[in-house]
Every structure is written in C-alpha cells, then in structure tokens.
Amino acid sequence: MKWAIAAVALVVVANGVVLVSTGRERAAPATLSPIDVCAGQLVGGGTSEEPPALRLSFAPDSLSTPAGLDAPGLRALGFGEAMIAAVGRERDSTFRWPRSRPAWVRLRQRPDSLDQWAVVEVAPRRELLARDSATIVVRGLVGVRERRSGPSPEGMPGHEHGGPVRLRTPGVIYPAVIELIPPQLHLDRLQIAALRSALTDTVRCAVTKRAMIANGANGGIWVESLR
Amino acid sequence: MPSAEQLRASAIIAFRDELARLEAEGVVALDPATRERIRAHHDATLAALAAAGEVDLSVTAARLSAGMRVATLLGTIALSAAYGLFVSAYWGKLPLALQLALVTLPPILLVALTHVAAARERSGYVASLIATVAAIAFAINLGTLGQLYNLPDSRGALLVVGAFAMLLAYGYGFTLPLIVGIGGIGGWLWTLGAIPLGLWWRDGFGVIEPLLLVGVLALTAPAWIRGPAKFAPWWRGMGATVLVLGLLLVQSNGEVSAFWTTNRHTIEIVYELVGAVVLTSLVVWGIRRDQRLVAQIGTAGAVLYLFMRLVDWFWDLLPKWLFFLLVGGFALAVLLVLRRVRRLRVEAI
To answer: Where are the domains positioned within chain A?
Structure first.
C-alpha cells in the first residue's frame, strides 16, 4: 500500500508544482504584447484532432543577422572558435557542423507578413534581453545554416524525384535560430472558437484579430486575451 | 525470464521425470517409503509455490503463460493508444478544468486499480498491465500540462515518470513497469551529458558517453539495488544492450562522442579498442558469473563488432566473394572458440 501511496503522491506533487508555479506567474504578467492573428497561424480547433494553438512561425533564412549572433554573442552561447571563424565564409571540407545551443530569443511580428515572426535579438540568458510591448520572448535553439548563392538542386534541370542526387556546392555559413521552444502557444476552447469564427480568410492575412501575448516573470508565455 | 518460484517448480518436475526414467532403466530403486516422503515434500513445495505466485506445472501451462504475456503486452499498447486517442479526439472542445482532470486523474485511478488487481489476481499479468498504462498515463499527463501551459519540454519528465514506474515495479514486483522505469531514469541520466556541453537537454541524446555510463550503471545495478531476484536479469540485460549499442554506434560514427571536436578518426579508433575490450569482458563476465543473457548480448555485440571491423578493413580491398568468404571464416572461428569454452565449462561441471 505504501508504494501505491508514494506513486500517487508523486503524481500529485508533480502536477501541483506545475499548476502552482504557472498559476502564480500568470497572475501577474511581466509584459503584454499586442499582435495580429490571422487564420494561417491557427492550428487545431473545430473538428481537428490537433490541440488548438497559435503557431509561432519565423523566417529561418532572414538576410539580416539578429543582435546577439555576432562573434561575442556566439561565444557567449558556447560556440567554438573554429565555428565562429567560419561564419560568413564558404564551408570547406574541414568544417564540422556544431550542435545547436539553447538561447533566449526576442521576436517581433513582421509587418509585411503577419503570420511570421522576425528574430530581433538572441541572448544566452533571459535577463540580457530588452523588454518591450512590441516583442515577445521565448526559448530557442541557435544553430548554423548554409546559405547557397546558386540555384538549389531541386531547381536544376534534370533533377527529378527518385533521380540521381547531385552533389551540392558548399554555401556560406551563418548562425540562425533554428527552433523555437515552444513552437506554438496553447489556445483554450473559447479563444480558438472566437478566432475560427472571426478569421474567415484562410488563404491570406486579409482578416486579422488582435491578441495579447503575455510574458511572465519566470519566462512563461501565453495568449492572455483576444480583443 | 522465469521467476525463482518457476525455476524451483521446473526443477521438481524435471527431477520427477528423471527419477522415473532412472527407475525404468534400473539404475536406482528407491524404497516406497523414501519415494513417498520425497513426493509428499515436493507436493507440499509445489502447492506452496503455486500459492505464493503463478507457476506453470506443465508444458501446456507454460505455453499458455507465454500467450498471456503476449496478450499483456498487446493489451498495454492497445489500452494506452485508446486512452491517448480518446483524449485527442475531444481535447479542443473541453474546458480547462475538464482537460486537467482528464489527464491528472487517470494515473491516480490506475495506481489504485493496480493495487486492487495485484491483491486479487495472483499471476500479476493484469496488474502489471494496469501499472504500465498508469506510467504511460502519467507521461501523457506531464506532456499535456506542458502543452497547456506552453512549458518547454524537460528532462525532468523522464525522471519523474521513471521514478513513478519504479515505485510500481518494486512495490508490486512487476517487470513491465521496471522496463519503463529503467528507460525513464536511464534516459534522464543520459541527457545529463548535455549540461557540461552547454546543449539543450534533448541534444544530450546525441552524445554517447553518458549512455555508456548508464549501461554500466544498469549492468551493475543488481549489486547495489535490493529488489526481487527476477529483476536482476532485466537490469543486466538492458545495461548490456545499451552498452553494446552505444559502443557500436560511437565506433562507427565519432560525431556522437562528447569529444568529437577533436579528430573524429582518432575517436573512432579509440572506441574500436574500447569496444574490443568491453565486448570481450561482457562475454567473459557473462560466462564466469553464469549470466546467460549478458553473455548472449555480449556475443551478439562482439559478432556485430567484428563484422563492422571487417567491412571497414576489407570491403574496399577485397573482391566481394573473398570478403564474404572471410566473414564466413571469422564466423567459423568464433563458433570454434565458443565451442571450446563450452566444452571447458562442461568438463568443469
């Protein structure tokens, strides 16, 4: 019996810790950021079996380098000197792809493409990021990508599905945020119902609805309300 | 793996068969009083074993038990899938309180059900199934909480679910939750390797050295964790499997090593040497300590290791027919060595 009680206690404590800590954080949001939501950002709801959520899509191949991804920033994130030296250069045969590093990321909704976010700033610790009502802060992973100047193999003549794979020419190495954690924000049933009924344009972002995204004092993030 | 009770019952049944054969061949002739005393003692022992737990007293019963074990596993998978799909089908339409209740209560109720089933059913098949589903329900519980509150995924969930499964395994003597527990806690320990490397916890799964340590810990766990004797082979078996797989992986791809920023080729050579020593040690350890599973896993790993080395060394050098002839020759050599070891063991007996 004592083992069963210990197992139940473990369930209760684990759930209690999560519920109490998130409840406290959500009672007093640190920042509130208004954003425009369009249908393309929504996941689930209605007859879908996916849980309802607001997707945080970002443009991975942005041409501008966000603040915090320069040499000192990369060093602070834990990247090695060899990788830092390779940034901005064409990848050579000695280059070793580094493992991604956890970071805190500040995002701003792109005015030209509302369903996408632009990475504004990256830092190893949350306290290092500036806070304002136009941006949100989430965790993320910083890695290395390769930017090719020539046409992609898919665009090359003769490249067909199942055909021979061409050797790709090396591109220029650049650091980038490769993943956001979490990749989407939960919406409760009332929020998803309101958004689904208001956002009738499911192709473009012609119809939008305003939402308030809250950041908590301990790094939490959630959809506070819809306007 | 047979329990201690089952091994004793099987020994008694085998003794009776062999005694009948010896008497029929005229080798021994026990006087009726002695034979009756032995029979009465064995009958009482079998009755006590049957009362203490489910033991198979015939080949048919053993086959039925094997079927029950397969049914247990299938039942566990099916019940877990049913629960997960039910929750996902109605999830978006439920208020938060109901969502929380739907994920928080099942593990608690399933623990209570495990307790009741363990008390009522001696074989433990149903209770073991329920305990495993409880562990899976708890994992879903924590995962869903994370999703509801946009929490980052965490290695802590592995530890908590592993500890939960261990409590049920050691509390009631179930092996299926033990496997979940070893997986959970082992996975948590594996990801700790990400901390000194400054990686996100999930990327810790891409580093092999902590996995090798987990394998060693699991292999030696029966020496420092008290529990049912039937758990020991599972600990050792999982530890040996993890060790073998980890070594085979890192020696063929140095990038999964924590030291991969140094020369990858050097790492692979070092681990080839480590692999040769460790796999041989596993086989020797398994044979000397009479741990058949460890010896078997070590042998399988050593054969795979040899095959991979042969591919590395000779695939590009030799014509294909000669390569496979060489592999066949090596397999024969391994067979001869093992046969000699076996003969020595038999002679020692």
So the answer is: 27-55+184-227, 57-181
